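Continuing from yesterday's entry. The apo prediction looked reasonable, so today I'm repeating it with magnesium ion included to see how the binding region is handled. Same sequence as before; SMILES copied from the compound registry.
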Amino acid sequence: MILKWFYNLPIRRKQLIALFTSEVISIVGLVGTGSLLIISGGRSLLVNQAKSELAVTEINYNIKINQMGFGFRGQSDNVAIISAAQQYSQFQKISPSLQQEVKKILQNEVKARKIEYATLVSQDFRIIANANRDRQGEIFNPQNLVTQVFRKPEQIKTSEIVSWEELTKENPPLPSGVAGKESLIRYTVTPVKDPQTRQVIGALISGDIVNQKLPIVTQTLDAQDGGYSAVYLQSSTGEFHLATAAIETTNSQQNPDKTTANSPYLLNFPLPNTSLLASAVTTNNQIVTERISLQGKTYTVAAKKLINYAGKPVAVLVRGTPETDLNNLLRDSLALQAAIAILTLLIDIGLAGLLGRAIARPVKHLTQVAKQFSQGKLTERAEVMSKDEIGELAVNFNNMAERLSLREQTIQEQMQQLQATLAELQETQTQLIQTEKMSSLGQMVAGIAHEINNPTSFICGNLSPLTNYVSDVFKLLHLYQKSYPETNAEINQLIQEIDLDYLQEDLPKLINSLKVGSDRIAEIVLSLRNFSRLDEAECKFADIHSGIDSTLMILNHRLKVQPHRCAIAVTKEYNNLPPVECYPGQLNQVLMNILSNAIDALEEVIETHSIQPQIQIRTQHITPEAIAIHIKDNALGIPETLLAKIFDPFFTTKPVGKGTGIGLSISYQIIVEKHQGELQCLSTPDKGTEFIIQIPITQKVKNSTENS
Ligand SMILES: Nc1ncnc2c1ncn2[C@@H]1O[C@H](COP(=O)(O)OP(=O)(O)OP(=O)(O)O)[C@@H](O)[C@H]1O
Ligand SMILES: [Mg+2]
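Holo prediction written out below.
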C-alpha cells in the first residue's frame, strides 16, 4: 500500500522523501551510536574516576591513622612513659608526679591530634595512664589488639567498632550525634619497649572516632572539586550506619546543618539505601560501583569495605562522582550533532532541489512536450537541458518527433494528392457526362433541325408557286363566269355547296397563314441549329442576345401555360452589347442550365405559393472589356447553408431522375475556366435567386482546348 503510494508520487517528491528518510535514518543512527558511545565511554570513565577518587578518600582516611601512628611511635620513646611502664612492670608504685606527667603527655596528644583515646597499658592490659577519666588499673584491651602487640611487637594501625558502653568508660569529649551509638574508631597500638632489654613492657593506644569527623569527607570533596563522600560503619549486628558524609550543595541549597554552618557542603547526607554498601562488604576486597540519584543528580558511586584487624568488615568508604560533566558533554555533543543534523538536512533539501532541477524538471518538461505532441502539436520539441540519460531521452524523443512529423507531412501530402486526383476524376467524370449529354442533345437537336428543314424548305419553296397557281385558277374561274353567266343547275348547286365566294376569299388567307407557319418552322429550325452550334466548336465573336433568344426558344414549351399552371413570364432588358468572343455552343449550355434551374424552382413554388412566376434577363456592358448577363427568378431562393455547395459536382436537391447536380458545376467550369469569366449566385431565401455571368469581350489567352 505504502509502496504503491510511493510509486505514484511525482519524481521530485520521491527524491525528497528518499533523501530525507535516508538522511534522518543516518542522522538518528549517528547521533544514537555517538551518544551511546559517549554514554558508555563516559560511564566507564566515570567509574574509573569514582574508583580513583575513592582511593583519595581512603588516603584521607588513612592520613590520620598514619599521623597517630607516627606521633605515638615517638611517645613510645618518651622517658616518662618508658619509666612509668618499667615501674609498673617491676610492680613498683608509680609516683604521682610521674603518673601526672604521663597523663599530661597523653592529654596533650589527645588535644593536639583531636582524638579521643590516648592510653598507656601494661603487660597485663591494665591502664597505667589515660587521657580522659582516670582509669588506672582497669583492663583495657580493645579488640585484643594489645594482646597482639605483646605477642608480636609491632605497631598496629586498624579500624574497629567501639560500643557506646566502652566509650562511656573513657568518657572523652565527643562530637554531637555520637552519643548512644556504636562508633567507628581508628586505633593505633604502639609497643613500649625497655631500652635495655628491648622487651615490650607496655603499649600506647591511640583512638580516633571517625563518626562526625568531617575532614575525611570534606578534604576529598575539596580535592575532587565536589561530589559525594561518605564513611559508613557496619555495626556488630550487621547494619550500616553513617559515620560521616558530605555532598556538594546545589546552588539553591544552603547548608541545613546548623552545627557546621561554615561548611560549603551539605553534611551527613545519607545514601538512599544500603544495597551498594551490602555488595561492597560481600565483595572480596574490590571496589563496587552503582549509579545513584542524590539530590536529584545522578552520581556514579564507588564503595570499598574497610576491614578490622581480625579481617572482618567494619566500614565502607563511599565516593560519588557527579555525572554532570558527562551530561554536559552529552548535551553539548547532542546540541552539536543536532546543529550538524539540521545543517545536513538543509544541505539535503538544497541538494534535493538541485536534483529536482536536474532530474524532475527535465522529466516534467519532457512529459509536457510529449503530451502536447500527442495532442497533435507536431512542432513541439523537448529542450535538451543536460547530457545525462534524461538529456539523451530528450534527444531521442526529438528524433522520434522529427520522424513522426515527417511521416505525418508525407501522409498529408499523399492525402492532398489523392484528394486532388479525386477532384480531377470527378471533374473529368462531370465533364464527360455533360459533354455526352450536351453532344447527344446537340446532335439530336441538329438532326431534328435538319430533318425538319428539308420538308419545311420543300413547303416554303412550293408555297409561292401555289399562290400563283391558285391566283391563276381564280382568274380563269372569273373569266368562265363572265363568258358563261348561264350555268346549269348541277354547277350552281356545287357553287352553293362549296360556298365559292367564301372559298375565293379565304384561300389566299389560308395560303398566307401556311406561309407564316412555315416561316415560323424555319425560324425554329434556325434556333435549333443556333443552339446546337455543332458547327461552332471554336472560339469566335458571337451575338449574346441571339444566344439567349435561341435558348429561350428551346425552353419555350416549358415557359408557356401548362394545364396545371400559368405561363412563366420572361422579361428581357437587352442593353447594347458588342460581339463577344466566346464558345457560343458552350455559352448556350450555361444559359440553358441556369434558365432550366430557374424554371424548375419556379414550377416548384407555383404548386404551393400564389405568385406571378417570372424570369428577368438583363444584359449589360459593364466595363470596356466585359459584359454581364443577369438571370433572376422570383422562386424560393437557396438556403444559405446550401449556397456554398451548389457549384459542387453532383450536388442536387432534386429527386432522383430529375436532377443529376452537374448543371451548375459544368456552367461554372465553362465560365470561369473556359472564358476567364465569373459566375456568381446571389440568393435571398423566399425572394429568389440571381445568377450573374461575367465574361470578357475578348479572350486574352486562347484556350488550349479550342483546337481539340
Ligand atoms: N434558380 C434556382 N432556384 C433555387 N435553387 C436552385 C436554383 N438554381 C440551382 N438551384 C439549386 O442548385 C442545385 C444544383 O443545380 P444544378 O443545376 O447543378 O443541378 P440540378 O439542376 O439539380 O441537376 P441537373 O444536373 O439536371 O442540372 C439544384 O438542385 C437546386 O437545388
Ligand atoms: Mg440544373
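Comparison notes:
- Residues 491 and 497 are 10 Å apart (CA to CA).
- The chain has five domains: 76-209, 213-327, 370-419, 424-528, 536-707.
Will overlay with the apo model tomorrow.
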